[in-house]
Amino acid sequence: MRQYISVLLLLIASASQASLVMKPTNDPDLIYDGHLLHGNYNAQVTHPDKILGFEIGQRMASPAQITTAIQTWAGQSDRIKVVEYARTHENRPLFAVYLSSPDNLANLDKIQADIAALADPRETNTATAKKIIKRLPATAWMAYSIHGNETSGADAALTAIYHLSASTDQNVVDLLNKVIVVIDPMMNPDGRDRFAKSLEQYRGTAPNVDDQSLLHRGDWPSGRTNHYFFDLNRDFFYLTQPETVGRVQLINRFRPQLMIDGHEMNSQDTYLMGPPRQPLNFNIAPSLQKWAVTFSQDQGAAFDQRNWRYYTGEWFENWYPGYSNYAEYRGSMHILYEQSHMAEDGVRRPEGTVQTYKESVHHQFVSTMANLQTLAKHSKQMYTDYWQDRQFVIDKESPYADRAFVILANQNIGRTQALVDLLLAQDIEVFVADKDFEVDKATNQLGQTLSDAAIPKGSIVIPNRQPEARLLSAIMEFDAQIKPQTLQDERQRILRESRSIMYDTTAWNLTMMYGLDALTVPQNLKRSLTPYQKNTNGFVAADPSGIAWVVNGNDDRSVAFAARLMEQGIQVRALDKAAEFNDKAYPRGSVVVTSTDNVGHAQLLNNVNQTAKELDLAVGTMTMGLGAGDLPDWGGRHFKRLERPQVAIISHDDLRSYDVGATWWSLDHHLGIRHSQIDKAALTRTDLRRYNVLIMPTGAKLTDAQKTALKVWVEQGGTLIAHQSSAAVMAGKDGIGSVKTLDNTLAEAEDFDIALRREWLATQDLDPSIVTMQNQLSQDLNYPWSDAPKRLKEDELKKREKWQKLFMPSGAMVAGRTDQLHWLTFGVGPTLPLLYGNLPVLMSDEKSEAVVRVGVYQAVPENEDTEKQAESTANAWYTLPPAHTIQVRMSGLLWPEAAQRIANSAYLTREKMKNGQVILFAGQPNYRGSTRGTNRLLLNAVVYGPGLGAQPTIQL
Known about the structure:
The protein is of the alpha+beta class.
């Protein structure tokens, strides 16, 4: 019965398509006749239908079937070279399939050497470049299905591989003489396999054309993401996942002229292709924008011939450089395909027709071939444009000529090394300052221009005047430029429709994401620099003569050191105050292992050294417990005893899979300790006594019973960590604890403002006018509310709150000020960049601790009207200290209304609840695996929370 209905639907759809052809034609490829492949094929190359067991495009090919087909064809055709460029977390292979004439494939190394020479005008002159361009074939990287549940792209890739490797038609032979095509057929095998399993589970007797069915949507977390639920199409310069690392390495070596990326979108949509709309990143070469129009004209014509509907731009922009269009910043033409999602059975369309899955695959295949033909036609001119642009960016008159980025020297060696590794992976040239020097008019991350900025020895220096200037600028500049017209369009869309035109985050600067202090210097720095070389001697073993051993707490890897040792049954301590032993200074947060805590542990030093070696850490040795001066001694209260974390992540149900995955990956990648995922739906049936740390990623909606279970567990000694909207639930009207969201506190705004003023005063020097030793009762006391500006009434605050909420950012970087006496900020500086979107605004008073707040206080210069400034501060729930303003924005699009709304709110709070504690993050601390600064806060909470913030009374 199912087969009969499938045939019937196919005939209906085929007849519908055939009737729409605009003019009579004898070209079978112009009519969708139920088959994807037309022409003559080499009988020695196995037809895909025989490998798959069904007609190609009729059903989704599984990752295993795609792998089998590629490996089969590699041994049958001399037009194929297969490279396995990576393995996924689940050990599935990722392939780059090179397709071209046998002669081109035989000369691949020489061709790649020519392309590399063309990429660096410092080593290649114009005459040589012209000769290279004349002999180079065109090059294309065609990539598909980076989102595993967007399946049609990979099936189209399989179709294209067979077509190009087996067709004997002259037009294909001619194409392969001119072009080297690299097909990356399935960019996310783990996600595709997950979706394939859901198709098997939900496939019924009859075809299901209802796009709301689980057959089309899949189960949580769907097949979109990889093993750790990462969106691989946001990872192209963050390089957190093995799929991306291998792919980018090969793309960077190949430097294709064209890169396409085959996706799917809403099932009731049609087909989107390039070029994108504004905003476009200013670092994309203008010549590529010109070629985008040429390619779209040819691709559109191919669709017009078949009467297929499509559109360009509309909702897709190229501002964020972390998509697959990453290649554009290195000079490749990039095209996005977005086919309406069909799953296997097709979807009933609004006009009443049924579009089949095979038709979707056909659209992707036709797009592929159309783009390759356009490339073959224009390749030489594209190479010429590429060469001229590479000359331009290194010219002394280019906008990149007089600029350098500096990562200031610091003790967080592991994090700094990770950032440098990212830059080196992009072929970016990196240097190290070999002595101290000063620069003039440098700009810091707060946007302040410094008259004389010190560059300490050991700082990382990256001149922007180098061949990869465009990519370097895109990922390292503090602010991406945006056209005034785009800003106006954004503002008007917000006011008209309460939504943004921005497709993604508007801030991504790597130094801010990593939480490392940096400067932009308006000079092409060249002196006192040496090329960067990775330190291969980081590990220093513990000296057996010591009484205790220490690892520097400023390095993020110290947290993993503590966690792993505790898993091995070793007692560990943490310094909560800077100390000095044996003439060596250790910052707060340093991890200490003492001999007296671990008497009888036969393998103590072996375990310490092995763990430090795994993490490439230097272990300092204490031979005496007396600290220098009045600094801590080893038997005092500043050596805090830690408790082994026993961790569970609350997962599934309504939790957002991206944040679940990023948290899961962080614990695995940064800590490497055991932990569990527990189903939120089973929370009240779970024995929570097995854990002393629970992490609730964003997305949770809790029943009263679930809230009660969590509260009881916390009060018994648990550490509950909640992110973003889950934190909002904890801080809601019926939440747990005293931290509340802004909309629930406007009636008590003055109380929160007084708490804020109290925090401020606790950081200030004593006012000499306050005489604490006087005998006579003072009649003139200054209270925090005494000199405050006139406060706004509750009704006005509510109106402003509703209005300001409209303007919350898609993703901007704001300045966070941190409590430098709190254990949660170990390894974090006084100012921490925070990635802010439409997050809950958390309010903290004296009953809780605001560990990180939004905004950095700045003193108003004496020559400004401080009285006028003070009068203007009562424009929100908070007031500012006298003669001070507050700086919020660091990078990205942040409207003034949003800045005012979130200023002085809490990003991170900690509240004691009987024997336990609740830790709330307003955002996702490990966003896309790349916000390393705020991720350190999360690691501190997980590893140090059970010992430093809770009492271990839970039965374990």
